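1st attempt posting a full record on here, be nice pls
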Amino acid sequence: MAWYSIFIGVAFKSTVVLAVAWLSAGLLRGRSAAARHLVWTAALAAVLALPFLSVSLPALRVRAAAALWPGQTDAVFQATAAASPYAGAGESTAPRSMTVSFTGARPHADWRVWLMLVWLAGFLAAFARTLAAYAGAWRLRRSARPFPDSGLCGALSRALGVRRAVEVLETEAGSMPMTFGLLRSAILLPSEAAEWSAERRRIVLLHELAHVRRGDPATHLLARTAMNIYWWNPLAWIAWREFLKERERAADDLVLNAGARASEYAGHLLEVARTLQSAPAIGWAAVAMARRSQLEGRLLAILDSGVNRRGAGRASMLAAALLAVALVAPLAAVRAQESQAQAGSQKDYERLENAAKAAAQSRKYDAARKLLQSAVAIRAEAFGEHSVEYGVGLIELAALETKQDQHQPAEELYAKAAQILGDQPEAAGALTHLGLAAMAKKDFPQARDYFEHARRVDPTEAGAALMWMAVVEQHQQHMDEADKLYQSALAVQDVKSVEAAVTMEVYSQFLRDQGRADEAGEMNARAADIQKANALPPTSPMASGVYKVTSAISPPSVLRKVEPEYSEEARAAGLQGTVIVQVVIGTDGVAGDARILRGLGLGLDEQAIEAIGQWQFKPGVKDGQPVPVAATIEVNWHLL
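the predicted structure (as tokens):
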């Protein structure tokens, strides 16, 4: 799972960043609270940026260019493949002892999926609470009244170097003084603040203005957002606690640097914390003056004359946050390397599968099976045994077993793949093969269920599924129902597609068997027109160094020929016709660079190419030397 890989990578890297921040803050114990708060702000900014940087730094991949194919040729060879009608009409070729029961159950959820769902639930809960807190703070600000003594705030703002105007608003009695607002800051005071002594009002306003000068409302939102993402990480909670503690101590230092006496300031702070309390509903959004849990440490720091009280402004915090993000970018770039590693796994199993395909074409089936088994193992390790990728790998292995007429192991693999893939579109192929196996056993109701399930999971292949359902009804002699299903298949298919042409070919054979020769001929002609429209143009460029047969070039001739074998799908559907293959016959007398000029589908094209690849030719000759010559081979498929 790609997202799980990202999730784990970010989790590990964020833990590293927070651990480094914790160590750095410990080394700065003798420095000011503002310096330590700067460390925690930078760390939280870094971990907040980490997932976005990880996703936005993908690996660069270069796609291989498509190979050039040779053009139309002059030399023509023919082959004919004949087979008995589909076994479902007579005796079954599949082992009768093999019975597969598939209920279409969905795959069991991967534990990694559950882990990510737990994280997502926690994130959404924390994010919802944050949104509710900010909405509550905005409502409180709109409903608050202007505080009578606003002139004092203006004078203190100028003394602290706060250039923007700050509103002072009066809220309900008993509420803790707090600061709120990113662009337009406001200080919220309880209604009884009007009855405080002038010194207490001055001290409280100085403290809240210190938060405004430092930009604490903005860093509070940054830290709160990081906590929403990393709610599960104990180091994140430590970072949050230290962030709040050092922020309040840094604000205290600003107040003391402005001329407040430490003993008087500590007394006012203690009284405010004792008599007032923060509103829980907005505590996640506003910067409150005091938290009782941190009060003792703050008072000791205020009264300690040896504490370093050097401050740090907004510019310092912004610079620290940007620097931290820049420093964490290389760590986030490891995500790209991890993507490369996962892509490497993908390339590994793709290489194995390509090698297995080549081995199968050379009829080295044991080697092909071992290669595919290794590829499936890599898919399982990289993506999990309940993943789509693993299910697709099982389908490829099952296809190889089918190719070797190993019906029972193929059926087991298809059934396992279908259970893993559930209602994913990729399950359609496995379900189709299970339907064909059920047809071979004359279990037609089960076969129709499989094809119906394939139609449901992959609507893009509904036409093919409906065609197979028609074939099932045809085998049961339900001709009217079969006719309707053939027409339904054509109704949902693109009338210009090769898939529609395949359905037309099968339907035309059905019509011919029903004595409807005129309709069959019309349907067959439509299929031929579609195949011709989808065929490669005869003017396709020739490959470099490949010759056409002329008077100066003697044509190649066949020395040994292997007759192609009917595919199970084509025999089940009763598909007949001609496949035209274009090849280059090399100087070694082997046909290569094969491409289909006109196909039939349902595996007959692949069977034709596989058989031709085993032919041995006497190569074409020019000036007494063998040369590669382009040729066209027609493979005629007939059911006896």
